[in-house]
Amino acid sequence: MGQGVKSSYTVMPEGSITTPKGFKAGGLHCGLKKTTRHDLGAIVCEVPATAAGVYTMNVFQAAPIKVTKESIQAGGLLRAVIVNSGNANACTGKQGEADAYEMRGKFADAIGVPAEQVAVASTGVIGELLKMDRVLGGIEELPARLAATYEAGDDFCQAILTTDLTKKEVCVSVIIDGKEVHIAGASKGSGMIHPNMATMLGFVTTDAAIGGEALQQLLRQVTDLTFNMITVDGDTSTNDMLVAMASGLAGNSELTQAHPDWAAFADALRYVCEVLAKAIARDGEGATKLVEVQVRGAVSDDSAQAIAKTVIGSSLVKSAVFGADANWGRIIAAVGRAGQPVNPETVDIRLGDIVTLEQSRPVGFDEDAALEYLKGDTVVIHVDLHGGDGTATAWGCDLTYDYVRINAAYRT
Amino acid sequence: MGQGVKSSYTVMPEGSITTPKGFKAGGLHCGLKKTTRHDLGAIVCEVPATAAGVYTMNVFQAAPIKVTKESIQAGGLLRAVIVNSGNANACTGKQGEADAYEMRGKFADAIGVPAEQVAVASTGVIGELLKMDRVLGGIEELPARLAATYEAGDDFCQAILTTDLTKKEVCVSVIIDGKEVHIAGASKGSGMIHPNMATMLGFVTTDAAIGGEALQQLLRQVTDLTFNMITVDGDTSTNDMLVAMASGLAGNSELTQAHPDWAAFADALRYVCEVLAKAIARDGEGATKLVEVQVRGAVSDDSAQAIAKTVIGSSLVKSAVFGADANWGRIIAAVGRAGQPVNPETVDIRLGDIVTLEQSRPVGFDEDAALEYLKGDTVVIHVDLHGGDGTATAWGCDLTYDYVRINAAYRT
Prior knowledge:
By secondary structure, chain A is an alpha+beta fold. Chain A is 33% helix and 26% strand.
């Protein structure tokens, strides 16, 4: 998917999740965060949008995951998603469930839609009950803040952040049936990031007309190539959730795999999710740079994915990148422990354009040039196994003092 | 193994790898390390010892692994093992192999034994050729340094260290057939530690009489409960190797599983390997404390092991322990992503004696007491799943600023 398809989408630098027709958004500070940063936000669609979701595979799933699954399964349609940060509402038992249902019901009432057409998401600390008086106060105020403007989209993007330093959003347009279709997204990181079937919080809006089942299948496929290919710290959250909503207001004929523009739409959605996923990796806790691992020559794409994720997840590789140390020995050690078929005699490794290993033998390279390259804000590690046609790309970040600092005292 | 057996071994605080009858050891500085610390060592047995080895499962296996496998397979007997630190002789191609064979041959000549009765081990930086002139110079000097004293054993223990801060050794005695049998061990860590079928370097000497096959099987079983249950950073080395040598000089009748004292011997060997494994975890790169994870109530021991290793390997759990933050939410998130059957409603978590979660519900606890406990030099995390009889224990360490510092500039 996306491979070999000429990109037909256009990036809209001023676009946001409110650009697709039919969507408003907003955000505000209701009092869950200790600072005055936004901590409650919503996206609302003026018509029932076909919806799809992918969720964490963690055995311990937070209360909002249960509520959102129920909403999307009820009729496959969503009018809104309500999100809080500062508290994950995870491991909070029956009270946590009741709180998530109350968030859904109260926000549905506030905007005049059925409760089962509202999704709920939460992110933040695990194991503490939501301060529901603050949440409900925020829900009363929120409808008046909703707008289809860039600023309102920005408020939403801010409201879903926790330890993230930057908001994460993207918008593209793509021509379907000669109509301009928009796809936009917002997401947040930035710790407990090793998505397994989903990521932390991600939201995609589009005005494309597309059936719920087709959207669900496509979202799953795209997730496997994007959000499921990033890691910050190897930990999978209890609250991972990616929700897509399609208003259908662009006026195209319904997208299915048989539609002549299916590939263009799929490629545009993949781009949106890839931008959001890479933004999460680059803004990983404590990170100073984005690291990309490109594997080729594996026996299969699945095998390449496993190897790419092992390399990108290695604490030793991540520390070496932080220190701008061209320590390819750690890269090959990670390749070799991925549990995949690898010929130990035929591996090439490049850091950007700098060849360090060819056919598994060290190549003399310019250490100063390597240092300069590794000091940049993006580092690409190329691994060619010369063992087949499998390829994969994974994204992550470096391991830094700040990662330890942030996580040594997260609750306090 | 060891479960339900009353311990019949006695720890010998002044014992070392030279305590079992028939063994000498020694170490010196030959010039591979930039400091003047020892970097070449050997253990020599006065008779051909039955031998067993377990090795890294990393696809990229260093040259000495190949040579040692060949030696042990040749006749199952070893007279000596020669070890260098400061250079792993990994990813060094044909020249690296030739160098490992030359180390073996030259040391065999120097002590007058057949080359195929010598094992070789190396540890240090990957991808650089050994400075063989220095190694060979050291091999000439080494025989004169070999002795059966505690000090000579200490020289060996020092010679195998890399970033380790402390040497790791242990010695026990156990009565077999009314005879005093000794088992001793030495090991080194302290990064790239996530053993998969073996560990970094470990050496066990014993004067027990035991056949090669029985020793190999037992060593494998014990490794799975000890060295394979530690992690420092999730990375598996190219040089992991554990070698055991049994001189048979204690005079017991040959140990087999049918021997009445088999369980006592097995338990003593398990203890030796557990002490060495825990010492590696406690001295993990940058570590300030030993972390132990005890899992019970899993559906099987294998399942408990997988969960224990996931918790001990979580960067978020490790950072929280460093910060003395009783963040049990990260522990349960790790339990939930281990890919094992877990009932999300029945989990208890304790930090030492401090209950933080009962039946998956938060329990109010004394934060000051928790802080005090987590500031100690050993932290035990208890997880009870209430889902079966499976138990496991894993060991690791905290994730600290110093881990990042050490690994941001290892080569330079």
